[in-house]
Amino acid sequence: MTDQTEDDGYEDDDDQEAEFEMYRVQGTLREWVTRDEVQRFIAKKFKEFLLTFVNDIEYVRLINEMVLANKCSLEIDYKQFIGTHLNIAIWLADASQSVLEVMEDVAKNVVFSLHPNYKRIHQKIYVRITNLPVYDQISNIQYCGDFFFFATIFPTFFL
């Protein structure tokens, strides 16, 4: 009699359970995203996103365009990323430095695997997050006397 456990799909259940465990933050989020296993998980998911996401934007095409333009910044649409990897997108918003470091390392590896000679031109690839839903950007807040107002809103003062 042969061992059937490999063909029963139990391995997939173990993978799903391990993935579920990655979303169970233990301690503070900033500490959690610095753990090696969590960074490997973020890297795996972000690499999958870069190589497989297809909607209005195809990131492999954007990488190719970036290389053709001799640029070193890859723009990632936050709304698309949050639609694919909700928890990691939230981690990105709340613990951005550690998550961005992982994303930039993955982006660099993906770009250099698709374009091996590009590392002679740029040694680092930057990830820029677009469409981040920020309500009040610091640059739009202005101070005038006793009032704070937003540059996009035109206040009327009555004396």
Automatic annotation (TrEMBL):
<dbReference type="InterPro" id="IPR012340">
    <property type="entry name" value="NA-bd_OB-fold"/>
</dbReference>
<protein>
    <recommendedName>
        <fullName>MCM N-terminal domain-containing protein</fullName>
    </recommendedName>
</protein>
<feature type="domain" description="MCM N-terminal">
    <location>
        <begin position="44"/>
        <end position="131"/>
    </location>
</feature>
<dbReference type="Pfam" id="PF14551">
    <property type="entry name" value="MCM_N"/>
</dbReference>
<dbReference type="InterPro" id="IPR027925">
    <property type="entry name" value="MCM_N"/>
</dbReference>
